């Protein structure tokens, strides 16, 4: 589908926020020929951000837009090929912008890890976006690019080798250093606030196929735990000696990956099972640490989703990190992550995908991932899929990202492990 001519390739909405500024800095350094504008509530604050970006951003236009003004969002979306947004919590602020982009046929990328927001986006705007040729792509940061893209890379490797479809597939966070994101915490609290007052909504969010295109078409594969606790060797022989526990973002990421499989007409396989795990090492206390970490994860999710509304919200807001805040530049530079995703195919072949990146996962690394997603949507249109609607990163631009991310300093490799 041919996109209409637009004034800009990318509008970065929320450019004055913490991650917004980091994304603006990345686009100023890596945006190349892209025509870019900055958007937010305050033109004066936007100008201050632009002034700090150097000569590459000197001529970037500034656009006043506010989540409380649908008219301003509609006008912004109509001027650009792609809107990249860092304005969250998305449950609270995000749907009007999705509506604007779906209506205008404008591609969209965000950082959300909020499954409920994505479900509402699908229910309300998937058809409209598809009809108008828009790609609404959620979860374009650390949540959930490493999850989504490593599985896509494994699928492509197995496909190239004629090795069958994917079956048991396991993401393992092997190492990381990161600060606590105020935006992520705010998103989680918003979700708890809604689910603790609505048992039906809570049950919906517990479904492993929360975000599927067609629940009735999904295979029945039995229980798929969001909080696994396992020996490494139960995942892959290469992990013998380590223990793994639940990964806190697995609840969101697993649903994105399963939606990718559905959007791709279940090309990963009808027996595709996926989990996310976090390595706690091989020390004598590793099994205890894995068990305690998993139990704490389960307790936080269960208690938060059921009883959050009974807690004093004012006290909670005073003690948790605030949205728009983050670690120092030195801490962001020292951060990193390394993940390995293992799969076994229907023919018995085994593969591993490795993805690693320098920079705090929730801040510096995420700004690179989001920026590259925006650039892929804007500049690599011949390498995007022919799908439209509410999509995932892999389903919308998997092939483009497999090329773009390594060129941006992100390690992304697949290898055959035999049988």
What ranges have pLDDT less than 50 throughout 5 or more consecutive residues? none
Class by SSE composition: alpha/beta
Gyration radius from CA atoms, angstroms: 20 Å
Neighbour order of strands in the largest sheet: 3-2-1-4-5-6-13
Give the helix proportion (percent range).
40-55%
How far apart are the first and last residues' alpha carbons, in Å?
A: 42 Å
Average pLDDT: 91
Tell me the series of helices and strands, N- to C-terminal: EHEHEHEHHEHEHEHHEEHEHHHEEHEHE
* Main β-sheet description: 7 strands, parallel
Count of extended strands: 14
Offer a few descriptive terms.
single chain, 419 residues, alpha/beta, seven-stranded mixed beta sheet, 14 strands
Q: What would you say this structure looks like, in words?
A:
The chain has 419 residues and is an alpha/beta fold. 43% of the residues lie in helices and 20% in strands. It is built from 15 helices and 14 strands. The strands form 2 sheets. It has a 7-stranded parallel sheet with strand order 3-2-1-4-5-6-13, with helices on both faces. Helix 3 packs across helix 5 (95-104). The protein is globular and about 55 Å long. The chain starts with 7 loop residues before the first strand and ends with a strand. 52% of the residues are buried. The model has no long low-confidence stretch (mean pLDDT 91).
Give a short summary of the structure:
The chain has 419 residues and is α/β, with parallel strands linked by helices. The chain has helices spanning 18-30, 43-51, 70-77, 90-93, 95-104, 115-132, 145-161, 182-195, 199-206, 250-263, 286-307, 313-319, 329-334, 364-379, 393-407; strands at 8-13, 36-40, 61-64, 80-85, 107-109, 135-137, 166-177, 230-231, 243-246, 273-281, 336-345, 350-358, 389-391, 411-418. A seven-stranded parallel sheet has the order 3-2-1-4-5-6-13, with helices on both faces.
């Amino acid at each position: 589908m041919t996109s209409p001519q637009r004034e800009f390739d990318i509008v970065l909405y929320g450019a004055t926020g913490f991650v917004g500024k980091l994304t603006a800095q990345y686009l100023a350094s890596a945006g190349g020929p892209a025509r870019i504008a900055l958007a937010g509530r305050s033109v004066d604050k936007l100008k201050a951000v632009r002034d700090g970006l150097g000569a590459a951003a000197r001529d970037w236009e500034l656009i006043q837009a506010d989540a409380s003004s649908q008219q301003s969002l509609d006008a912004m979306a109509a001027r650009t090929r792609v809107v990249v947004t860092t304005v969250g919590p998305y449950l609270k602020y995000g749907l009007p912008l999705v509506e604007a982009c779906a209506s205008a046929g404008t591609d969209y990328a965000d950082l959300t890890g909020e499954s409920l927001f994505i479900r509402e986006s699908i229910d309300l705007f998937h058809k409209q976006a598809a009809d108008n040729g828009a790609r609404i792509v959620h979860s374009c940061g650390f949540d959930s690019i490493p999850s989504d893209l490593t599985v896509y890379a494994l699928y492509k490797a197995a496909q190239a080798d004629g090795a069958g479809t994917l079956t048991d597939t396991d993401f393992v966070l092997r190492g990381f250093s990161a600060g606590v994101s105020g935006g992520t915490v705010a998103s989680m609290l918003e979700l708890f606030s809604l689910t603790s007052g609505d048992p039906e909504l809570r049950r919906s969010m517990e479904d492993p196929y929360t975000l599927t295109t067609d629940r009735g078409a999904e295979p029945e594969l039995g229980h798929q735990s969001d909080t696994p606790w396992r020996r490494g060797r139960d995942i892959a022989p290469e992990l013998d000696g380590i223990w793994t526990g639940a990964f806190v973002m697995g609840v969101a990421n697993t649903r994105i990956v399963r939606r990718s499989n559905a959007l791709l007409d279940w090309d990963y396989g009808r027996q595709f099972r996926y989990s996310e795990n976090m390595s706690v090492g091989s020390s004598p206390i590793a099994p205890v640490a894995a068990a305690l970490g998993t139990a704490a994860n389960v307790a936080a999710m269960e208690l938060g989703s059921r009883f959050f509304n009974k807690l004093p919200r004012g006290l909670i807001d005073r003690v948790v990190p605030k949205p728009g805040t983050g670690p120092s530049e030195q801490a962001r530079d020292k951060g990193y992550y390394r993940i390995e995703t293992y799969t076994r195919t229907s023919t018995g072949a085994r593969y591993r995908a490795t993805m690693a990146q320098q920079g705090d996962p929730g801040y510096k690394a995420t700004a690179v991932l989001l920026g590259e997603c925006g650039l892929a949507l804007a500049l690599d249109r011949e390498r995007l899929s022919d799908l439209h609607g509410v999509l995932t990163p892999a389903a919308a631009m998997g092939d483009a990202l497999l090329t773009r991310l390594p060129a941006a300093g992100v390690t992304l490799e697949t290898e055959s492990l035999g049988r």
